[in-house]
Amino acid sequence: MTYTGGEYSLEDLFRQLEKQARSENVSNYEEYIDLVDNIIEEKKSYGFLVDEEDLEQFKHDLELRWPEIEKHLLNA
């Protein structure tokens, strides 16, 4: 995973979500939301995301991208 200065961008997180959703056979929105939460928490625990960042907005933005993930999963 490429990151600058130890911080992940929204696109970095989305690409990781896409890969992980495929590898974990995520099949619905609820599973995707759990995956978003897990990835945000993981990156936060390693210091890649910090509390000062608007993590709720990150989560919301990623949650809104479910249709993109779903489309890729259906075409895989």
In a nutshell, what does this entry contain?
With 76 residues, the chain is an all-alpha fold. The protein has helices spanning 10-23, 29-45, 55-63, 66-74. Helix 1 (10-23) crosses helix 2.
**Roughly what is the average pLDDT, rounded to an integer?**
84
* Total tally of structural domains: 1
Helix content: 55-70%
Taking the sheet with the most strands, its summary is: none
Ends distance: 21 Å
Low-confidence stretches: 1-5
Layout of secondary structure:
Blueprint: H1 10-23, H2 29-45, H3 55-63, H4 66-74
Structure description:
The chain is built from 4 helices and no strands. The protein is mainly α. It is elongated. The relative contact order is 0.19. The N terminus is likely disordered.
Structural key phrases:
0% strand, elongated, 64% helix, 76 residues, mainly alpha
